[in-house]
Amino acid sequence: MVNHLCDLPGVSKSGYYYWLNSSDKRAERDRNDWEDFQLLYRIFLDKKKCGIDEIKMALETEYDVVMNHKKIRRILRKNNIISSIRAAKPYRKMMKATQENATKKNLVNRQFDQGIPYKVFLTDITYLPYGSGQWAYLSAVKDGATGEIVAHHFSTSLKMNLVYETLDKLNNVIKDMPVMERYIHSDQGVHYTYPVSRKK
């Protein structure tokens, strides 16, 4: 009977049994996808129909959930949700700063090399793609006078600890040095204007 039924649509017998045996796995994947979709859709609405990058960042920073771009896109499309897809650097539109967040006056005025080591520091976060749609992040601090990287920290998450760990390492480098006025120059993104970062 199976041979006859498979012959009608031109399906191989082995293909039929493979489909039959994998039905439980498909059902489990559908259940997992539906659970993930509930969270993705909540973020999609809360962020006013934001893009894939913003959804991924919200998952990591607000829900401590790691999910790659490919999976987010697949689940949204599976449920007929269209989200904007930005091909440029991920998280270009970072989280909007809260009311507590505030930028600081530019005291350095781009005079990064003032001839004194460990006086002016430059810091930024570099995005490093790897695997299948995955990202790692490097937070680094460079001495404006020597160009030396004096502190850095790697992470697979963009949570605030990425910056906190970097600043703690910088503090360990300079804590025994003579007291002097020092400056840290950044792009003043959300990681650097967040209140705790400013206090550090």
UniProtKB/TrEMBL annotation:
Occurrences of domain Integrase catalytic (ranges): 113-200
Protein name: Transposase
One GO term (biological process): DNA integration
Source organism: Staphylococcus aureus
Pfam families: HTH_21
A single GO molecular function term of this UniProt record: nucleic acid binding
Cited function: Involved in the transposition of the insertion sequence.
